[in-house]
Protein: Amino acid transporter transmembrane domain-containing protein
Amino acid sequence: MDQDKKAPSTVEPSNIDDVRNGQVLDGSGVTNHDAVFGEIRKDGPNYRSVGWIGTSFLMMKTQIGLLMRLIHSEKGVLSFPHVFNTLGIVPGVLLLCAVGGITTWSNYIVGVFKLNHRHVYGIDDAGQLIAGRIGKEFLAFTFIGHYTMTAGSAMLSLSIAFNALSDHGTCTAVFVAAAFILVFLLSSIRTLGQITWLSIVGVVSIVVAVMMITIAVAVQERPPEAPRDGHWESDYKLFGNPSFTDAVSAVSAIIFAYAGTGAFFPIVSEMRDPRHYTRALVICQTTISAIYIVVGVVVYYYVGSYVSSPALGSAGTTMKKASYGVAFAGLLVSGVLLAHVSSKYIFVRALRGSRHLTQNTMVHWFTWIGCTLGVCLTAYILASAIPVFNGIVSLSGAAFGTLQSFQPMGAMWFYDNWKRPERGWKWKCGVVWSAFVILSGTFIMIAGTYGSIVSIIDSYNADGRVAAWSCADNSGSS
Structure:
């Protein structure tokens, strides 16, 4: 166990014939042994090829992929304008900054823990170090369940885009199936280094789309959902008066938007130099926090409680089509990245320690395609077969969101620092802060799960008779 805590040694390039993509290669074409992937050869996939700029976009896309809570906002699923409508602008922004700060610390701990324990690939490996086999399997279940269901939600978001762009040109079930095919094909790209350019396109498209809506709602006369007669003014609130259930649901929605932390372990594992992880993290968290605040506040200020469902319809039909056209690539890449990291986890766990993990063998290809197909097919079936699937995704976010971004990171700090001989004020502050992160995450998990269950019951009572594989238009078109 003590060996795990040693700082990783630096590989010296002496007597080495080549350095490629940040990997030290010997004359036979085999890299220095990677603690996760083993021997990475020139004739196989390079799982250590992501630079820090690419890492920042992958991290942003993982987080902003959860911004589809803003875009794919139907009954029972809160967006940021809905959050501010529940809490009020001032408490909403303060809570958003607080959650952003906590998760930024959690994300930082991921990078530190990875450097201290190079063999860690997923959050489940950290769980095994902390709590043995039970910790590993529990966190593995939360990781796979959470991101697989969120990939299914991305497929539903794509079906909304198809419906909006085509004026409900065909049965929605057909559009969800088309989304499944697209996500499966692109998520089968083997390395995050090859997906980086998709993430760049995805981040840009999502940001441009939501900024289009933000500007449009600021200049329109009144939102489409507002009363058409008489004088209209936005009914925004600086301070809300929510019930306990509504408040915890709103807080859970904010946490859900920052709950990409679990995917940061596999991302940092494919970096050329994990020591550059922190600079990528700073860019990621600063950018997404600014986007969340600006978009959420501006849209809510001008639209008030009349934000459309989904929210990209808040500026009218024409702008909705334009914004969905721009956002389509971002929605697609969200599903691709979420499905990829889920599939890659299963793939690495199945073949770890085997030559098939990094060589182009038949076992390698059949296992990889089987993993991506299995994850995407599961996400598709869940999204299509459960009438209140959006509520289920919200429940997953409430139950598993903090388990990806709060409690494990506090426990990771204790694992690496509890037995340190130096116990000055920094150590004591670290103890208090880590305990706070664990306790607050546990409280929010329990309260948010309760709020989500109440929301699911209300949603089912309202429209629980919607059929599985429904053909109904889900884009909010009139």
